[in-house]
Amino acid sequence: MSEGECPNSLLEQFDAAYANVTQDRRDIYGAPEDTYRRIAALRSVVDECRDAQIREILGMVVIKVARLVQSPEHLDSWVDVAGYARCGVMLLNDRN
Q: How far apart, in whole angstroms, are the C-alpha atoms of residue 41 and residue 65?
């Protein structure tokens, strides 16, 4: 597909998005192998949480923390951490 041309098929749309996301993510967050190594290390601690729902929220926070290690200036990740924290508080609030 040439530059400026809009993708037509779902596969073309997927491939265009994949190419865009892959480069953008690497530029912002660094090499995937580094990010996933960090996530695995942090997740091993989070997995000790007995509460399944809270554990999943913490797991999402861990992903953002691992990314922030590489790019601490990336505001979107900080906002996501705050959002996941609020989700955790909302969950706890609904239980009471």
A: 11
pLDDT tens digit at each of 96 positions of the chain: 555 666 689 999 998 888 877 777 778 888 889 999 999 999 999 999 999 999 999 999 999 999 999 999 999 999 999 999 999 999 999 999
Distance separating alpha carbons of residues 87 and 24, to the nearest angstrom: 27
Please give the model's pTM, rounded to 2 decimal places: 0.76
Say what angle helices 75-95 and 52-70 make with each other, to 10 degrees.
Answer: 170
3-state secondary structure the chain: CCCCCCCCCHHHHHHHHHHHHHHHHHHHHCCHHHHHHHHHHHHHHHCCCCCHHHHHHHHHHHHHHHHHHHCCCCHHHHHHHHHHHHHHHHHHHHHC
Distance CA 34, CA 20 (A): 20
